[in-house]
């Protein structure tokens, strides 16, 4: 195994506050967040830059980021929006050499606190923050189930 901190997180060898995980992705709170809820979405398989990333996996990363951003709106974080940012390579300020998508929750009027977050980058009660995002994910799953019931569709079938 290489000495990549994100690969160590995936392997369970480095600590992280995970908010989502599937067979190919892992999402966890940034240890130096710009805002409360700042989450990183990474592929489990190492890819240093976009050049190393399969396009379908890249699309899956952005779909997960989209879902997490919506979950942050439905959670007690009460986000009004989100920035989804992927820095590709050192020239683009990528600091960890493993592809990662930043999902940064935003609130109306947060420009000053966001600027402060860029400067300070301090954690915000990671356990409670992760629980809030996970509750947002659960709320979305319940909405999806309710939508399926109201339209008469079931997962895996089409109406």
Radius of gyration: 16 Å
Spatial sequence of strands, sheet with the most strands: 1-2-3-5-4
Principal-axis shape equals globular
Query: Given the helix and strand composition, which structural class is it?
Result: alpha+beta
Order of helices and strands: HEEEHEEHH
The main β sheet shows up as: 5 strands, antiparallel
Mean pLDDT: 90
Notable traits:
alpha+beta; 5-stranded antiparallel sheet; 159 residues; 4 helices
Describe the protein in words.
With 159 residues, this protein is α+β, with helices and mostly antiparallel strands. It has helices spanning 5-10, 55-74, 111-120, 126-151; strands at 18-21, 25-29, 39-43, 81-86, 101-106. A five-stranded antiparallel beta sheet has the order 1-2-3-5-4. It is globular and about 50 Å long. It starts with a helix and ends in an 8-residue tail after the last helix. 28% of the residues are buried.
